[in-house]
Amino acid sequence: MRIIKNTAIIFALIFFNQIFAQTPGFQGDPEKGKEIATGVCAGCHSADGNSIIPINPSLAGQHAEYITKQLMDFKVEGDARAKRDNPVMASMVAALSVEDMKNLGAYYAKQKTNPVPATSDDESLLELGKRVYNSGNLENNVPACSSCHSPNGAGIPPHYPKLAGQHTAYTISQLEAFRQGSRTNDMNNAMQMIVLRMSVQEKKAVAEYISTLATN
User: What Gene Ontology terms describe where this protein resides (cellular component) (predicted)?
Assistant: First the structure.
């Protein structure tokens, strides 16, 4: 009964997101975004968003709405704690307006993703990652990652990001951030609950498998 209920919730969220993604107000100017990306952001994420630093995410090809939301969630407003607790990114977004963030999202969304070099040739680890990503772990009530992020890792905008080809180290760091509570910007705390049910090996395996996926 719990599995059926969780599945119903997932499909309801997907339906909501598809409607939400079609609403106006998310369009940005990629040319203006390029000016910011090639200046402020290039040092960590490369000029075209294809980060060569494993702990920094690749942004090329990511959904524009998702990038805009993440930039907003890094921003500290008054005494309130940011939904993504990251001092480096907090300083980077401090001077950005919402329009700037939308422009960055529009720019990165148009960039082509470069393949990320594999970090593991452990076939058993990749097989475990593939199994958890596509089927979850019913015994521990871990849903399939593909339910929200698509079988090929393309994601479902605006809330569920593209994961395909993301650096293994970055994915692991974000799963850990959800577990520790330093990242709290997931919808209905879904990721925070899921990672608590995953083993260390499962998280590593899923991250490795995600890095092998490609959507373009």
Answer: periplasmic space
Task: Please state, in angstroms and rounded to a whole number, the distance separating the CA atoms of residues 38 and 129.
Answer: 34
DSSP assignment of 171-186: HHHHHHHHHHTSB--S
Residue 159 in marked binding region: no
Q: Is 187 annotated as a binding residue?
A: no
Checking 93-99 for CB contacts under 8 A at 24+ apart, the result is 96/36, 96/71, 98/68, 98/72, 99/28
Q: Is the pLDDT of residue 193 over 50?
A: yes
| Residue 120 token pair | 């593991």
Residue type, 107: Y
Question: Cβ neighbours of residue 32 under 8 Å, at least 6 residues apart?
Answer: 100, 103, 107
154 vs 38: CA distance, rounded Å: 25
> Do the annotations mark residue 149 as ligand-binding?
yes
Q: What does the pLDDT look like over 144-157, one tens digit per residue? A: 999 999 999 999 98
